[in-house]
């Protein structure tokens, strides 16, 4: 049953930009570049593009088809037609995954807010190079500040979602996404002009073709493709449920896959030449953005400005992604509990804030708390990213490929050409489920 007055995107570009906003996030800015560098550079890039085209893109279109057809939140979309409990559970699992990712994602994004504020006000500008690591550790160790920034970030995401699909999410994406594109290109251009840029490019792109023989490369590429495209958590289903009649979903899916990949490559070009130009180590994960890069900024001419722009980029990219995750939870609350949008957004935001507090404290006062030998934030990242996300992905492709009647699925996808329809069905029914299953088995064995 669909609501009489379901909200809609005000324009086609709005839908594409909002979905691109979901895709472009923390994953593109530090995770992609690091994973690429570790997995054979250009060889990884080739495998990554193959995963995006052969598995990610069909899965994006499957989510779009599901959402566009059902015009419901993710749980509703999964249970249309005959509704065995298993399918409703898959939908509920997607809501839970989105909620958990949002909780810790907001903590890291809060660090980005802090560093943006620190560079914008000048507080962090004079930071001597040797003190970057200690300063970050001191910030994390403090009980109050990281939690406060986590709160500030979640509050801004909540405000955007509370304003609604067109007035909140679409408007924020229309302003932020073109701006982010411009900033990342400017930063990449400046980074290329630094002496030593070639070594950074070599780290990112130098082809080590022997890496193609390592199975780990493909797992990394597939996992990164899913996380980065935002597949498997119901975000794309939810966003597609707001499209207007006649939206060209295949075209939108292609633009998002291409835009997301180009953005990741541009961000890598902005980051690595600078890291190498100043002789630093390309470190892993959050440390790269919050410890290594501040050292680069301290040495770079105009580093304060570069840093301000960089952390704005990181914060805003994270914001549009967090908004999409919050919308999944809020949309579910609106339909299921009949809540008004504002109430649903507020409750979901508060709950996700609370769920993120242990992760915020886990890098500081609670840093001795370890589950399975990892910190709280790492565990949340691992469980959601490596386990729940592939499970969500497989649920979507299996549901669309095998449970939705074939003609209805094809019609909902918007694909017209027979050849493309066959390729899409091949990917959604066989290729994607098999690839994800292999990935899950390999992880279980790891
Ligand atoms: N795609 C986002 C990123 O690259 C993260 C994200 C995952 C956002 C899932 C929404 C849904 O950072």
What this model shows, in words?
With about 450 residues, the protein is mainly alpha-helical. It has one domain: Hydantoin permease (Orthogonal Bundle). Helix content is about 80%, strand content about 0%. Helix 5 packs antiparallel against helix 14, helix 5 packs across helix 15 and helix 5 packs across helix 16. The longest helix is centred in the first third of the chain and has 37 residues. The protein binds phenylalanine (PHE). Phenylalanine (PHE) binds next to helix 1, helix 2, helix 10 and helix 14.
Structure, briefly:
With 446 residues, this protein is mostly helical. It has helices spanning 12-23, 26-38, 42-70, 74-78, 85-121, 132-141, 145-163, 165-192, 197-205, 215-229, 235-240, 249-277, 285-299, 303-336, 341-362, 376-403, 406-413, 418-445.
The unreliable regions are: none
The SSE order reads HHHHHHHHHHHHHHHHHH
Termini Cα gap:
43 Å
Average pLDDT, rounded to a whole number, is 89
> Number of helical segments?
18
What is the global morphology? Answer: globular
Q: How many strands?
A: 0
Taking the sheet with the most strands, its summary is: none
Rg:
21 Å
Q: Could you give me the name of the CATH homologous superfamily? A: Hydantoin permease
Class from secondary-structure proportions: mainly alpha
Percentage beta strand:
under 5%
The CATH C-level name is Mainly Alpha
Tell me the CATH architecture: Orthogonal Bundle
Percentage of residues assigned to helices:
over 70%
CATH level 3 topology: Hydantoin permease
What ligand species are in this complex?
phenylalanine
Integer count of domains: 1
